[in-house]
Design goal:
- With 175 residues, this protein is α+β, with helices and mostly antiparallel strands.
- Helices cover 50% and strands 14% of the residues.
- The chain has a two-stranded antiparallel sheet with strand order 1-2. Strands 3-4 form a two-stranded antiparallel sheet.
- 16% of the residues are buried.
């Protein structure tokens, strides 16, 4: 939208080349994860959990393979896996700190990088900052305490609220 250029493979490749020239460490990380997946059959999250990737099966099947491309799985697996684990580390505080997070005692579901809770409407304005704190601050504390990782990148949790999934308002309770 709003682009003067026509999107082409050449344009996309140029965009990627410029990105990786600016962020060399990202390219190095992607290549390292792909080499690890090819050599060992898995990649790891930052917390040390392994994600199996069957590179050999895909190579043997060739065009008959209908799964996700192994190199993409290797590139994304460690990052997305870590994000999911951080979300779960935040969620565990519903049990570890029951009184503090009492308004969030009814988790409905989690989907990839999102948590959904049933919260009474009268408690919504109190529950939102609690949920944000639970997902932005608690995982960093736990990663340091339980895994010995000095996490430097801040986490960001966005709030939404609504009576149904298709009708949710963003940035509810935000500043």
């Amino acid at each position: 939208r709003g682009m003067d250029k026509r999107v082409t493979v050449e344009w996309a490749n140029d965009l990627l080349d410029k990105y990786f020239a600016r962020y060399r460490k990202v390219k190095e990380m992607i290549e390292r994860d792909q080499r690890q997946a090819e050599a060992m059959g898995y990649v790891e999250t930052m917390l040390g959990f392994r994600i199996p990737i069957n590179v050999q099966e895909q190579k043997e099947l060739g065009d008959e393979w209908d799964g996700a491309y192994w190199a993409n799985m290797a590139s994304n697996g460690g990052i997305q896996g870590t994000a999911h684990q951080l979300l779960l580390l935040g969620l565990v505080n519903v049990l570890r700190q029951k009184e503090k997070y009492r308004l969030l005692q009814r988790p409905k579901m989690e989907v990839h990088d999102a948590l959904y809770f049933y919260v009474r409407l009268k408690n919504l304005w109190k529950a939102i900052p609690l949920g944000v704190e639970m997902l932005e601050e608690e995982p960093i504390k736990m990663v340091k305490k339980d895994f010995g990782i000095d996490w430097k990148v801040p986490l960001k949790a966005d709030s939404k609220a609504g009576f149904r999934f298709g009708v949710m308002c963003k940035d509810v309770g935000g500043e």
